[in-house]
Amino acid sequence: MDNEEMEPHPSRVARVFAVLEAFTPARPTLALSELARRASLPLTTTHRLVAELHRAGALERQADGRYRVGLRLWEIASLAPRGVPLREAALPFLEDLYEVTHENAQLGVREGHEVLYIERITGRHAVGVLTRVGGRFPLHASGIGLVLLAHAPEHVQREVLEGRLRRFTDYTVTDPRRLERILAQVRRDGVAISDRQVTDDAMSVAAPVTDGRGTVIAAMSVVATAGPNVAVRLAPVVRAAARGTSRALSAQRK
Amino acid sequence: MDNEEMEPHPSRVARVFAVLEAFTPARPTLALSELARRASLPLTTTHRLVAELHRAGALERQADGRYRVGLRLWEIASLAPRGVPLREAALPFLEDLYEVTHENAQLGVREGHEVLYIERITGRHAVGVLTRVGGRFPLHASGIGLVLLAHAPEHVQREVLEGRLRRFTDYTVTDPRRLERILAQVRRDGVAISDRQVTDDAMSVAAPVTDGRGTVIAAMSVVATAGPNVAVRLAPVVRAAARGTSRALSAQRK
DNA sequence: ATGGTCCCTTCCGCTCAGCGGAAGGACGAT
DNA sequence: ATCGTCCTTCCGCTGAGCGGAAGGGACCAT
Questions:
Q1: Residue closest to C11 C1′ by Cα
Q2: Chain A, window 88-107: residues with a beta carbon less than 8 angstroms from a chain B beta carbon
Q3: What CATH number did the domain enclosing B53 receive?
Q4: How does strand A203-210 pair with strand A192-195?
């Protein structure tokens, strides 16, 4: 009786997310048929699903008929644990960093084997911004990534070290043994420096953000495009800000 | 045949959102049974639904078994039209405002009959912050609200003017005719001033943010807790920032 | 005109995913 | 020991969701 293949379990909820995940930073607006293609769902099904999502406010429809993620969803999602609450606690310190350095200041958390950028403060004349809020980046190259990796659970570190370490510039560390030594140093110093490991013209200094119990839950960084002495100049500032943030956060959770 | 009442249409998608909307800024973490109660769904159904949402990453489960909105959802939602894109464009200008005034600077859009706050920059010593990012507030009292209302479609203005104008302080404008005159003035001046209309000790100056075609899509404000002359001092700054933002935004949409 | 290709939308009968009552287990308070 | 509260699993019934088919633009070519 079982003709063809047997599809596993295309549950309703999974399909809803297949649709929502079709949207990416690169293609934030999609037509119905594109949506169906990307979610690999029959057009008819997508049509019905999308109509329901639209009614619920999770999707918005623009004048030309294309769809975008709706503000309603954004509103709900801003309740995510490390979303707004962490952001709000850390923002004043990012501002301090920005005000002192007038360089890009960022805040990120670890999601699996990547950094997820939660917040960024940019000058009006932002230069070569690679990252964006809501964007992701590998753990082994950026300053924030190194801090988060250095303090990640042991198995995560192992997986990353054993995995492919993608090269971005001549300075990117792709040797697992060297990366391991760097991570140890980051734990010792409390600060990570990424010197042209992401792009040829940028350097960043990052420091951990901890919760009340000392667990590292995020990292902040300042990215500069000037010479190497910038790192030295910024380190104490970053460290101070990170310490301050830790205190602020531990104060928050009554 | 049709016994009892006939339930309307408890579609799957609608239920998913009933669950997600059970989370509010006031109660960002919920136990399963609370979730079921708030979504008014049978416990069993909620259990299954929540399990699926958890698998999809839309909900996270903390150590104590309670649920929170997941980062995965936040990531998707940051693609919302007036979410990150507008934020990113406006943030440098909010920073300028903050740097000049060291008062709270905010960015909001209109959602129905309310302001939805998209972004806020706060000093470390934030005083009496009523609003939060992702939070809502009526249109008729705050500076941002007045700007957005003044430039809202005619029918929205009518509905708000005919509706109940909630009083927050002795200065809150609750007379529709007076509010109408104020809105006209806001359109003429290009700036709205809310003088103790929200709380007794705060005043804000707000200006519209327009897209490339001149349509008002958001508003920025500075809130101060000092005397009335602050308004006069800040108005040109706000106006300049708003003009700058408009330009930045129109440049963005190629 | 005519045919082609691309979208989007509506219709409709089949079927299996989801439903929710019932029952059971884990914890804590009285 | 007895209750209350919370979470989880089981299982047979059924209507919500499914998706193929068909229809309706809009926009090209030829």
A1: A44
A2: 88, 91-93, 95-96, 98-99
A3: 1.10.10.10
A4: antiparallel
Q: In angstroms, rounded to a whole number, what is the distance separating the alpha carbons of residues B4 and B112?
A: 36
B15 CA: nearest nucleotide by C1':
C18
Same-domain status, A63 and A159: no
Mean pLDDT of B169-188: 93
| Number of folded domains that form chain A | 2
pLDDT tens track for A127-172: 555 677 788 999 999 999 999 999 999 999 999 999 999 999 899 9
ipTM above 0.85, yes or no: no
Distances A40 to A34, A36, A252, B54 between C-alpha atoms, Å:
9, 6, 44, 22
Residue ranges making up the domain that contains A123: 84-252
- Distance in angstroms (rounded) separating the CA atoms of residues B202 and B183: 20
Are A125 and A252 contacting, i.e. CB atoms less than 8 angstroms apart? no
Give a yes or no: residue B146 inside a domain: yes
Q: Which nucleotides of C are covered by protein (CB under 7 A)?
A: 6-11, 17-22
B68 with B148, same domain? no
Q: Are both B71 and B93 inside the same structural domain?
A: no
> With bands split at pLDDT 50, 70 and 90, how would you rate the model's confidence at A20?
very high
Which of B13, B30, B132 to mutate: most A Cβ within 10 Å? Answer: B13
Any idea what the CATH number is for the domain that residue A230 is in?
3.30.450.40
